[in-house]
Design goal:
heterodimer, A: 76 residues, alpha+beta, Translation Initiation Factor IF3, 4-stranded mixed sheet, 33% strand, globular, B: 377 residues, alpha/beta, FAD/NAD(P)-binding domain, 6-stranded mixed sheet, 4-stranded parallel sheet, 31% helix
Chain lengths: 76, 377
C-alpha cells in the first residue's frame, strides 16, 4: 500500500471537497489511502454517503479543530 | 530579468500584457524581457462554445489572432514548450530552441479526456471543442422527441456549465415548440445538483419549474453506445436518445511528461500562486492543482495577482499580495436571463434572482473579453 495522500480542500466552495476527493480518487490506484481535509460542515455526512454508495472504504472520519479529516481507501 | 510565459490562453495573455505595461520603462531600458510561448497563433474565447452548441454564435466569432492581443514589446513565439528543466531555469521548445529565464509563468491550461470513460467519446455530444460544439448543435436540431441525458465528468472546466446547459436545453426545445416531447435528465457526481451548495439550493426549484429530472451521486462509469445506455460507477443507469457530457479534464500532456504534477496539475501555493518548491515559477488558471474553479475568471483574477507580484519583484524585490481565491462566474439561465456567482476562499456566493440586464451584460462581456484579455479591463 502507498502512503496516505492528503487532499487539502479546506476553505473551498468550488469545486468543493467531495468533487476534489473524486478527482484525486480517479488519479489513485486501488488500495491507495487518501485523507480529505474539509472545512465544509456537510463533509462529515456527504463524503461517507458517496464513498459507501460507490463502494470504497471509510477508514476514519473525525472533526479536529473545525476541520474534517476523512480517510478513505480506494477499493475498486 | 527574463520573464518567460508558457501558454497563450486567458491567464498567460493577461499576465504578459499586464506585465508589459507595468514594466514598460524597464523593457525600454532593456532590463526586462518578456517572452511568450504558445501552441497556437490563435486565441479562442472558450465560453463562446456554449453559444455555438445552441446555434447562437458561429465558431469564427470565437477567435482572434494571438499576436493582435499582445503588447508589442512581448516576444511571441508559436513554439510550445516541451521540456521544463526547472533546476537550470530553462525551457526547451518543440522546435528545439532553448529559453532561459529568471521567472517562469506556467499557464498551459487543461484538455478534455473523454476517452478515459469507455464509450463516452463515441456516444456523447459535448461542446468543449469547436468541432464537437457544432456537432452537438446539429444533433439538437435533429431531435424531435425522446430523452436527453446530461452527465458530468470529474474534474471539469467551468463548473457552472452543467447548469447553464440545462437552462439552455429547456429554452431551446421550448422555442421549437417540442419541450413537451423531450425528457431532460440531469446527472451529477455528488449528492446535490451543483457542487456549490448555494447554487444547488438556488437551481433546484428552477429545475423543478422546468420539469428537469435529476439523479445525484452519478459518476459516469461507461457508455453503452449500441444500446444507448449510460451507467454510473454507483451502479445505476439511464437510457437516452441523446447523451450530452461535460467531459473529464486533465492538465496538459507536457506537464505530465515532465512529471511536474499528478494528472497534469502543478502543485501550487494557494496564496502566492508559486509552484511548490520553486519560488521563481508562478502557476495560474487550469494548470494549478488548487481546489479552485477551472475557469477563465479564476485565471483572470490570478493573472492580476501574478503580474502585480512579478512587477513588484522587479521593482522592489518582493511580491506584494496574495490571491484570495476570487472567482466571478456568469450563470446564463436560458436564452434571455442570467445571474452570477462571486466567491473567494472565505465567502460563499450570494445568488441573486436572474434578470435580463445581467444576460445583456454577459452578452456584452462576450465582446468585452477581448479588451479584458489585453489586460485593459
Amino acid at each position: 500500500m502507498s502512503d496516505t495522500k492528503i487532499v487539502d480542500a479546506r476553505d473551498t466552495f468550488c469545486p468543493g471537497p467531495l468533487m476534489e476527493l473524486i478527482t484525486h480518487m480517479k488519479q489513485s490506484n486501488v488500495g491507495d489511502t487518501l485523507e480529505l481535509l474539509s472545512t465544509d460542515e456537510g463533509s462529515g455526512a456527504d463524503v461517507p454517503e458517496w464513498v459507501n454508495k460507490v463502494g470504497h472504504e471509510i477508514i476514519s472520519n473525525e472533526k479536529v479543530d473545525g476541520v474534517w479529516h476523512i480517510k478513505i481507501r480506494k477499493a475498486k | 530579468m527574463r520573464i518567460l510565459v508558457v501558454g497563450g490562453g486567458t491567464g498567460g495573455t493577461i499576465v504578459a500584457n499586464n506585465l508589459a505595461r507595468r514594466l514598460a520603462a524597464e523593457i525600454r531600458a532593456r532590463r526586462v524581457r518578456i517572452t511568450m510561448l504558445s501552441a497556437s497563433d490563435r486565441h479562442m474565447y472558450q465560453p463562446g462554445l456554449l453559444y455555438v452548441a445552441f446555434g447562437q454564435m458561429t465558431p469564427d466569432q470565437l477567435y482572434r489572432d494571438q499576436a493582435s492581443l499582445l503588447e508589442e514589446s512581448i516576444d511571441f513565439h508559436v513554439d510550445p514548450a516541451e521540456q521544463f528543466q526547472l533546476d537550470q531555469n530553462r525551457v526547451v521548445t518543440k522546435s528545439g530552441k532553448v529559453h532561459e529565464y529568471d521567472i517562469l509563468v506556467m499557464a498551459t491550461g487543461s484538455r478534455i479526456v473523454p476517452e478515459q470513460i469507455p464509450g463516452l467519446a463515441e456516444g456523447a455530444e459535448t461542446f468543449y471543442t469547436e468541432a464537437t460544439a457544432v456537432k452537438m448543435f446539429k444533433r439538437l436540431r435533429e431531435m424531435q422527441e425522446g430523452t436527453v441525458a446530461v452527465v458530468v465528468g470529474v474534474p471539469h472546466k467551468c463548473p457552472i456549465a452543467p447548469v447553464e446547459l440545462i437552462f439552455g436545453l429547456h429554452d431551446y426545445f421550448k422555442a421549437r415548440g417540442i419541450r413537451d416531447k423531450i425528457r431532460i435528465k440531469y446527472h451529477y457526481p455528488i449528492g446535490r445538483i451543483h457542487t456549490i451548495k448555494e447554487v444547488a439550493v438556488w437551481a433546484q426549484p428552477q429545475f423543478d419549474r422546468m420539469g428537469i429530472e435529476y439523479e445525484t451521486l452519478f459518476n459516469v462509469g461507461e457508455v453503452d453506445v449500441e444500446n444507448k445506455v449510460v451507467r454510473s460507477e454507483e451502479g445505476t443507469e439511464t437510457k437516452y436518445d441523446m447523451l450530452i457530457a461535460i467531459p473529464p479534464h486533465r492538465g496538459m500532456e507536457t506537464i505530465e511528461a515532465n512529471q511536474l504534477g499528478e494528472g497534469g496539475w502543478i502543485p501550487t501555493d494557494r496564496f502566492k500562486l508559486t509552484m511548490n518548491g520553486h519560488d521563481n515559477v508562478f502557476v495560474l488558471g487550469d494548470t494549478t492543482n488548487l481546489p479552485v474553479s477551472k475557469t477563465g475568471s479564476a485565471a483572470h483574477f490570478q493573472a492580476e495577482v501574478v503580474a502585480e507580484n512579478i512587477a513588484s519583484m522587479v521593482k522592489i524585490g518582493t511580491p506584494v499580495r496574495d490571491y484570495d481565491g476570487k472567482v466571478y462566474c456568469f450563470i446564463e439561465t436560458g436564452h434571455d436571463s442570467a445571474t452570477y456567482a462571486m466567491f473567494n476562499y472565505q465567502n460563499p456566493p450570494d445568488l441573486k434572482p436572474p434578470s435580463k440586464p445581467m444576460h445583456w451584460f454577459k452578452m456584452s462581456y462576450n465582446q468585452m473579453y477581448w479588451t479584458s484579455v489585453r489586460g485593459l479591463l
